[in-house]
Amino acid sequence: MTRVVLCGLFFFLGAIGYNQAQTKAPATVGPVPTENQMRWQEMEYYAFVHFSLNTYTDQSWGYGNEAVKLFNPDKLDCRQWARICKQAGMKGIIITAKHHCGFCLWPSKYTEYSVKNAPWKNGKGDVVREMADACKEYGLKLGIYLSPWDRNHPDYGKPEYITYFRNQLTELLTNYGPIFEIWFDGANGGSGYYGGANETRTIDRTTYYDWSNTYKLIRKLQPNIVIWNDGGDRGDLRWVGTEAGLVGETNWSLLNATGEVPWNMLHYGLENGDSWVPAEVNTSIRPEWFYHPGEDAKVKTIPQLMETYYNSIGHNGSLLLNFPIMPNGLIHPNDERSALGFAKAVKEMVAVNLAARSKATASNVRGNSIQFDAAKAIDSNKDTYWTTDDDITKASLVINFGKPTTFNRFLVQENIRLGQRVKGFTVEALVDGNWKELAKATTIGYKRMLRFPTVRATQVRFTITDSKACPVISNIGIYNAPQQLAPPSIIRNQAGEIIITPVDGESVVYYTLDGSVPTTRSKKYTKPFQTGGKLELKAIAFDAATGKSSPAAHEKFDIARKDWKIMGIEDGKVNAVIDGDPSSAWHQPKGTKLPADLVIDLGKEEALCGFKYYPDQTMWGPGIITNYQFYVSSDNKEWKLVDEGEFSNIKNNPLWQTKKIKAEKARYIKLRALKNTEDNDNIGYGEVDVVTN
Ligand code: FUL
C-alpha cells in the first residue's frame, strides 16, 4: 500500500518536474538587446530637426566660414516643434546641436562660432536649452546630433580637436537633462575653412576619435543613452545604408562588433552577428535635411510617408523623421500638415485589431502550458507570448474570426528580449475552403508588418517556416487599412512628351498646366502629349470605386530638350543623360580618367542661370560626382568657367542637385567631374539639365 502511494507520489512529482522544465521560458538565442536598446526600440518613432547656418544660406553642408550674424530667427519657437512632434505621435526629438559647419546652437564655452555671437536674442539665446524645455513640457525625450566633422575648427584633424569634441560632448550631456540618443554623423573629412586654413583634411575615422574612451565618457554622463555612430566603433544602433526611408525586408538586428560593415550589411543586418545593433531609419519629410524654400511643394505626401512607415517600423526598424526648420525658426505648415495627416493615417490603419476579437490555436504550445498558448499572441499584452517546445522550428498558429472578415495588413512581433529568431514565415487565408497564400516574408524582429490586397476570409494561418530556435511571438495584429492612393509619376522625355503613370497602374489621372490643384473636372490624361518650353504640371490619381483622389504630384520643367545633343560620344546609350527618365543612367566609358567632361549642345543660345545634375539611382551604385566645374561656351571652343564646388551629401541622399550661376548666354554647356564618391574614375549621370531665366 505504502509502495503504491509512494509510486503515485513520485509519478505526480515527476509529472510536475516535467511540466516545470517545459514551462520555463525558452533560453535566449544569440545576442539580445540591452535595457537602453529595449527602451529605445519601444519608442519606434521620433523626430530630427535640422537647423543651423545652412538654414540661412540654402546649403546642405556649410563650409565653416559662414557668418554667425546670419543666425537671426525672428519667430523661433521650439514649443511649436514639440507640439507638432507630440501631435504626430513621436516620442522624442534629436536636434542638430552642431552640424558639419561647426556652428553651435548652444553657447559653448569652447568656441566663438555659436549662438552667443549671433544677433538672435543679442547673443543670450540657447536653442538646445529651449528645445530641452519644450521637450520636457510636451513629454518628449531629447536627443543630440553632434557632428564629429567640424569644418570651422582650426584644430580639426589634429589631436587637440578631440579635447574640443569631448568638451562639447560634456557640455551637451551635462547641462540639458536626460539625453536618450547621441548621433554621430558619418560624413567626416574633406575641404573646409578650418580657422582660415581653407584646405582639405582627412582623418582615420576608426582611430581619430578614440571612440572606446569617448563612449566611456558618454555612458558615464548619460547611463541611459543609446549611441548612433556611422563613423567608427559600433554603437548601440546602426544606420541602414540609405537616407531614402527604408531598411531591408530581411532585417536582422545583429552585426559583428568588429570588422568592416558594407552598405548592404547595414541594410539587412547580419543573421549570425555577434552583437545586437538594431536599425534606425533616418529620412527627411522633404528631399533635403535643411530648409530650402524651393522644396515647399516637395514635402512628402501621406501615401509616401505611409510607404516609409511600412519600410521602417514595419521592417523591424525605428523611424527618425526630419523636419527642416525655416529661417524664421518654425516648421513650415506644409510639413506640419503632412506629419499630422500621416499620424492620422497610421491611427486609422491600426484602429481595429481584428485578431484581438478572434480565437487562436497553435500547432505546438510549450509544455502544453496555458502560459505560452496561442492566445498570448493576440492578447494585446506585449509581455506575454506564444512559444513552442525547444525542438520546434516550424509551427503554425491559426486565427479564427468566427465569421467572414475583410483585411489587408498583418502585423507580427517577436519577444526580442529572448533574441531574434524567425528566418521565414507565411500568412495564408482560408478562402472558399482552401488556404490561399497572402504573403511570404523572412525576418520579424521587434515588429514586422505585411501588406497584401484586401481579402475576405474566416481564418488566417501564420506559419513559421524556419527559425533559429523555437519561435517566441508576443503579438499579432490583423487590420483592414483604408486605401492610400499615391500621387502619379510624371516625366517629360527628350522629345517633350509628358508621360503620367498612376502608381497602381489603374487609377484615372487628371492634370492641370496652370498651377491649380487638379480635380475630377480637370483634364483627363489618356495618353502621352507633346509639350515644349517651360511647364508646371500637377496631376492626381483618382479611384472611381472609392471616389478617393491622391495628393497632387507636382513637377516643373525648364526648356525643352528636343534639339539637345551630347557631343563627342559615340555610345548610343548616352542619351539616357537627357531622356527625362530618372531610372536610366549612363556612365563614362571604362578607361576614362578624371577630370571627365560631358558636353551638351543645347541646339541654340539659351539664357542660363543654373544647371542640374541627377546621379545614377542604382542603390549603392558607384560613379556619383561629388566635385565639379561647370563651363559655358558659344562655339564649343572657348569655354568659360562659371561655377565650381561640391555636391554635398550626394552619396547618402542621391537627389537632384541644383546649382545657380550668374546669368550667362550660351549654346554649349560642359559639366566637368573632378571627383566621385569612391575616389576613382567611374563617372555616371542619371540626368543633366539646365535652369534658364
Ligand atoms: C548626413 C549629413 O551629411 C546630412 O547633412 C544630414 O545631417 C544627415 C542626417 O546625415 O549624413
UniProtKB/TrEMBL annotation:
Signal sequence range: 1-21
UniProt-listed SMART domains: Alpha_L_fucos
Listed transmembrane segments: none
Enzyme class: hydrolase
Documented EC number(s): 3.2.1.51
PROSITE patterns, per database record: FA58C_3
Keywords (A to Z) from UniProt: Glycosidase, Hydrolase, Signal
F5/8 type C domain boundaries: 343-481, 541-693
GO CC list: lysosome
A Pfam family that the UniProt record links to this protein: Alpha_L_fucos
InterPro entries in UniProt: FA58C, Galactose-bd-like_sf, GH, GH29D-like_dom, Glyco_hydro_29, Glyco_hydro_29_N
GO molecular function: alpha-L-fucosidase activity
One GO process term, biological-process aspect: fucose metabolic process
Family the UniProt entry places it in: Belongs to the glycosyl hydrolase 29 family.
UniProt protein name: alpha-L-fucosidase
Organism: Niastella vici
